[in-house]
Design a protein that fits this description.
The structure holds two protein chains of two kinds. In chain A, about 75% of the residues lie in helices and about 0% in strands.
Chain lengths: ~350, ~300
């Protein structure tokens, strides 16, 4: 227990600084390649993410689904179930909630919001059930089954938006009709797109923090390190796998409903927009801890909205955000390992 | 032309071989990687990078340069993964995901710098099509097998060389030994780390070439998201094919048959939604994965 000496802190600080320096150097080189001044680009990025009330709200709007998806896959990743299917589950939730909202002959917000919420959760869970069962009972690699299902969901969504869920008016690109006013998630901040769905982030993070301290949470932790012991304590392998899949699906589906009923107000083929994949990254970068995941999703969201601002202000394509996210993941994954080794 | 027409099937099967090239080359790269006991999940990002590099280099100096460029870029990504995992000891799943992000993101970034949106797409000539004399005149199978793009023939060569090297040469035996029993191989004087470096780098080069097979073998231009998850399909194909070269080829044919059928049938069967045909290859791959999953014959140290 002598890891926390000043020497240990100094090497850890040096490691973090080294990682940040490598990241900054690579990103600055890319910005320079695009013919922009790296410092001006950084200013544009910060302004794009936090500079105005509306932009700050946009960062939060992006952080909400990232955090929900990330918190949702946290138990699965802790259990050793590597689901990468949040994208497909988010799409399924968005599609089913839209279908539910349009098929219920009600006009009260309470009913429509409940129905939309249930559609999102149910759609995500149903879409997660198949890879969950395949993993639990037939040993199908969940990374692959969920990746394939992501593509299947993407094509199925386009079909739905051309057929059963198509807008009544002729549109150039497939999309649904706008959702009725009474089914929309209420706005949280006047004049911005920030909606009350943000409350789910707080609920989920708090709920998971409590869960980790309960008997069930401890059982899942035991499962990750000692399957046999967990089974004797009442948590069998199929149950652990399917349950963590269903939880991940439910939350991704919830995020899907929020993206439609809270942000876009219409179901577009681009409803996922990289959020499913991003949510998983955020979970990993957040160290599979609730608060870490929320912080990481804020950072990722700031990077995404900031890069869009930067694209408008300078000549730097917004794809720099994806490169940076990948580099951060790479550097953190290497850094964590070094820390473990020297500890 | 409808599906009852013999020419229809001739075109479908010819297209199947052409579309199998990217998947098989990527699967072969992944198989070499996994046979050495490592995993490359960045396969789709590396294919994207290879597809783009192929177009850029082909635009500057012809298709030969395009192929070389794609292989070189793929090898760089493979080496990056190798250093991160072998030298620096990072988790290979996380690094793989990071590489697929960097591959896709960096390619998209460079693509927009090279061709700002709104500009005309830059097209490059495809690799040459070669008609094998006499053989291509055989009824039905002739045009399918012997009137193909260079990339398709390269796939045939890769198939034969892959089978031979893995089964009959010392290189193949060492590779399998490192994946199955690294400690034993080390004791017999094999440098397992070196074998893994070479396998990951060579595997990356093949994934880059797989990307080139899309742009230089089929499309003639680059666009964002053009792999449509083919890298992940290749990953599935390795498992479906039980880590064998002919198995991977069969798996690639399974996907590309339904892909080719979808492309052709869209004109012949307008009553079926096109998206259903787009889904079919992925659904079939998933089904094959489920049917073959019980057999546990992966390299033991994977």
């Amino acid at each position: 227990m002598t890891g926390r000496t000043t020497d240990g802190v100094a090497t850890e600080l040096a490691r973090i600084l080294l990682g940040a320096a490598v990241l900054a150097a690579v990103v600055a080189a890319l910005v320079w390649l695009a013919g922009a001044n790296p410092l001006a680009a950084l200013r544009a990025l910060v302004h794009g993410a936090f500079g105005e009330r509306y932009l700050l709200a946009e960062t939060l709007v992006t952080a909400v689904p990232l955090a929900i998806v990330g918190l949702g896959v946290m138990p699965a990743l802790r259990t050793g179930v590597f689901t990468i299917g949040s994208q497909g589950q988010l799409i399924a939730g968005a599609a089913l909630s839209t279908a539910f909202v349009f098929s219920v002959p009600a006009d009260e917000p309470v009913v429509l919001l409940t129905v939309g919420f249930m559609g999102g959760v149910l759609g995500g869970m149903l879409y997660a059930l198949l890879p969950g069962l395949l993993r639990a009972y037939v040993q199908v690699n969940e990374i692959l089954s969920t990746l394939l299902l992501n593509y299947i969901a993407g094509f199925a969504l386009i079909w739905l938006l051309k057929g059963p869920l198509a807008a009544a008016a002729q549109t150039a690109t497939p999309r649904s009709a706008p959702l009725p006013e009474t089914s929309l998630v209420p706005s949280l901040l006047e004049g911005t797109r920030l909606h009350w769905g943000a409350a789910f982030v707080v609920l989920l993070a708090a709920g998971l923090m409590v869960w980790m301290r309960t008997r069930s949470g401890l059982l899942y932790r035991v499962f990750a390190s000692n399957e046999g012991l967990a089974a004797r304590l009442g948590l069998s392998r199929p149950r652990a796998v399917v349950t963590s899949f269903l939880f991940a699906g439910a939350t991704a589906g919830l995020a899907g409903w929020l993206q439609v009923a809270g942000v876009a107000h219409t179901l577009y083929p681009s409803v996922d927009g990289g959020l499913g994949f991003g949510g998983i990254l955020v979970a990993v970068l957040g160290g599979l801890r609730p608060l870490g995941i929320v912080l990481a999703s804020l950072m990722f969201a700031a990077l995404t909205t900031g890069a869009q601002g930067m694209q408008m202000g300078t000549s730097v394509p917004a794809a720099i955000a994806v490169v940076t996210q990948g580099l951060v993941l790479l550097i953190v994954a290497i850094g964590l390992q070094r820390k473990k080794r020297t500890a | 032309m409808t599906w009852t027409d013999i020419v229809f099937w001739q075109i479908v099967l010819g297209g199947m071989l052409r579309l199998a090239a990217p998947i098989f080359l990527a699967a072969l790269g992944e198989m070499i990687t996994e046979r050495a006991g490592t995993l490359n999940l960045g396969i789709d990002g590396i294919m994207t990078a290879g597809a783009f590099a192929a177009v850029v280099f082909a635009h500057m100096a012809g298709w030969q340069a395009g192929l070389l460029g794609a292989a070189a870029v793929g090898a760089c990504y493979g080496a990056l993964l190798a250093v991160s995992v072998i030298r620096l000891g990072a988790n290979q799943i996380v690094i793989g995901i990071a590489i697929s992000l960097i591959g896709a993101g960096l390619t998209s970034y460079l693509f927009q710098l090279w061709q700002p949106s709104g500009q005309m797409a830059i097209f490059v000539p495809l690799t040459p099509t070669w008609k094998v004399p006499f053989l291509s005149d055989i009824p039905f199978v002739g045009p399918i097998l012997f009137r193909q793009n260079l990339m398709t023939y390269a796939t045939f060569v890769a198939l034969v060389v892959g089978i031979f090297v893995l089964a009959k040469t010392r290189i193949g035996i060492v590779l399998k030994a490192v994946g199955d029993d690294p400690a034993g191989a080390e004791m017999r004087g094999v440098d397992t780390a070196l074998v893994r470096y070479v396998a990951l780098t060579l595997g990356g080069a093949l994934m880059g070439l797989a990307g080139a097979a899309i742009t230089l073998g089929v499309l003639g231009a680059f666009n964002d998201g053009l792999t449509n998850g083919r890298g992940y399909v290749a990953l599935a194909v390795v498992i479906i094919g039980r880590w064998s070269v002919p198995g991977a080829f069969a798996g690639a044919l399974l996907f590309s048959f339904f892909e080719s059928l979808g492309l052709r049938a869209q004109s012949g069967m307008s009553f079926v939604p096109t998206e259903l045909f787009s889904i079919l290859p992925y659904a079939m791959t998933l089904l094959a994965l489920a049917l073959t999953a019980r057999a546990k014959i992966a390299p033991r140290s994977l």
